[in-house]
Every structure is written in structure tokens, then in C-alpha cells.
Design goal:
Elements (H helix, E strand, L loop, with lengths): L2 E4 L8 H10 L4 E4 L17 H10 L7 E4 L12 H20 L4 E4 L9 H15 L7 E5 L12 H10 L6 E6 H7 L6 H11 L5 E6 L1 E2 L10 E2 L8 H8 L8 E4 L10 H10 L6 H6 L2
Helix pairs in contact: 1-2, 3-4, 4-5
């Protein structure tokens, strides 16, 4: 099982430090941002200790395909009203694609965006326009559209939205998918029958396009459309359901990334990964983390 978590990337070790953090969780996969997700400030990639990080990964059996890069939240290609927001998103996505190449990764997870009350059809058309502009020099990079909870005017809570993008972008072979369990649950999907979800996804999108999964519990009831992550086993989805998902044979080769909340300033990932590897829930986990 390829499983890891979101890890930080900060001075002075940058990507090397991110890999070291992943190894401290006994992970064999990781997800990072190439800079702060809320702004456009970026360090040049040649300062981020990439060579040392890749060497450490190789020494510890972490494949390059298990590095997931997440695009910053400020990219909103679905914005139909503010030209400057759309153009910033296109330009920034172009830059992120180049940074993924320099990292020698291939998967860039992207939130499809919010149509800001322009309507889903116009929002989808705008995303297609933005992707066509941003992906002109895509190379080997795959854009993994993340499934969303449907909060506000978010696009991506319905598999048909992703199918629309695949059918209309110029570089459709490079459009992949990242499933988020919290988002699926909050969008109304019944995760207790994950095989039925995979059947639907395969029919509409194609299971071969699923390259990444975010494994999160949810603080919300199913269909709430709120997107609030909970620690594994401490939310409305529950450990047993999530454990069955991560061990589902149909997604055994898909990289799985935890994005659950820190507890009292402590990362839960080492313990949550261990629970999945052992298929055993620890009901005292949050209490343990709170007392560290």
C-alpha cells in the first residue's frame, strides 16, 4: 500500500525536510505544496534541496510516482467574473506545472474551482479554457482534478463534471482524478458501498484515471456539503469504512494521502498510517496526541 500524508516544506531543508518528515511517519508516499498554498510567493526550485531529497527517497524505497504535488488554493479557473483572478490562475498553474517537472514528480492535484454564481455550465467552460492555456507545455505532468464536497459554488462534486473536462480539454490524456473521501461523503456519496462508487466512477470517468486518493474522515453528516476533515475513525465516516476503502483491491496501486487535522499541535499521521497497516482502530488516539 502506497500511503503517506501532507508534509510541510520549509526552510532550511525544504523538500529534503519534507521527505524526512514522511519517513518519520513510516510513510512511503507524500504530498506537498511547492510554496504557500494561499499566496504566489515561491522559492526557486534550485534552492529546495531536490537532489538530496530524491536520493533519500531512493535509499528508502519511495518511488518518484509517490510524490504528489498539490496546486495552491488561490487558483480558480472557474471564475467567470474577474479576469484578473482567471489570468492569475492560468499563469500560476503554468508555473506550478514547471515546478512539478523540476521536482521530477508527475501528479499535480488541482481543485477545479468555483463558478461564483455564474452557473456550473459556464464554470466548466471557463475551466476548460484555463486548462487549455495552462497545459500548453504539460510534458509528463498529470493534472489530477480533485473531487469536491460541493460547498458554495464548487465544481467537482459530481463525476460528470470531470467527464466534461476530459471531453473538452485539448490535453485530455493528462487529466486524471484525485478522490477525497471526506469530499465524497460530504457531497452525498455512500462510502459504505465503495465498490458501487467505483463502478459509477469507472462508467463515467474511467478507473484508469484515478491516480491519487485523499483519505480523510468527516466532521459532517453525509451530504452536508461543508468539507471539514476529521481524524481517521473520529468522524462520521468511521474507521471500518475508511479501512475497507484503503485496502480495496481495485485501488491498491493508487497513492493514498492523509490530510487529517493536527491534534494539540501534533501530527497524527504516523499513528493513522499504522492503524491502516494493521487494520486496527485505536480509539484512544486523539487522547494520546492531546497528552503528548
Amino acid at each position: 500500500m502506497k500511503i503517506g500524508s501532507h508534509v510541510s516544506m520549509s526552510a532550511p531543508k525544504y523538500v529534503l525536510g519534507a521527505v524526512e518528515e514522511a519517513l518519520s511517519y513510516n510513510a512511503n508516499a507524500l504530498m506537498l505544496y511547492t510554496g504557500a498554498p494561499q499566496n504566489t510567493k515561491r522559492k526557486p526550485m534550485n534552492q529546495l534541496k531536490i537532489k538530496e531529497a530524491l536520493e533519500l527517497m531512493e535509499e528508502n524505497g519511495i518511488e518518484k510516482s509517490s510524490i504528489i504535488v498539490h496546486a495552491p488554493y488561490i487558483i480558480n479557473l472557474a471564475n467567470c467574473f474577474k479576469t484578473e483572478t482567471f489570468e492569475l490562475g492560468v499563469d500560476f498553474l503554468k508555473q506550478e506545472i514547471e515546478r512539478v517537472k523540476e521536482l521530477e514528480a508527475t501528479i499535480l492535484v488541482l481543485h477545479p474551482g468555483s463558478h461564483v454564481k455564474a452557473g456550473e455550465e459556464k464554470g466548466l467552460e471557463k475551466i476548460v479554457e484555463g486548462l487549455n492555456l495552462a497545459m500548453e507545455n504539460i510534458g509528463d505532468v498529470q493534472i489530477a482534478i480533485e473531487t469536491m464536497a460541493g460547498k458554495g459554488s464548487e465544481i467537482g462534486y459530481d463525476f460528470h463534471h470531470i467527464r466534461y473536462l476530459i471531453d473538452h480539454v485539448k490535453y485530455s490524456d493528462h487529466i486524471k482524478v484525485c478522490m477525497d473521501t471526506c469530499h465524497l461523503h460530504d457531497a452525498g456519496f455512500d462510502l459504505t458501498d465503495f465498490d458501487a462508487i467505483l463502478d459509477s466512477f469507472d462508467e463515467i470517468v474511467g478507473l484508469d484515471r484515478l491516480v491519487c486518493m485523499h483519505i480523510n474522515d468527516s466532521k459532517n453528516v453525509r451530504g452536508a456539503r461543508k468539507d471539514r476533515h476529521a481524524n481517521i475513525g473520529f468522524g462520521e465516516i468511521g474507521f471500518d469504512v475508511l479501512n475497507q476503502i484503503v485496502h480495496n483491491n481495485r485501488v491498491k496501486d493508487v497513492v493514498k494521502i492523509l490530510e487529517t487535522p493536527f491534534v494539540n499541535g501534533h501530527a497524527p499521521y504516523k499513528y493513522e498510517i499504522e492503524m491502516f497497516r494493521k487494520s486496527t482502530f485505536d480509539p484512544t488516539l486523539v487522547e494520546k496526541l492531546e497528552n503528548l
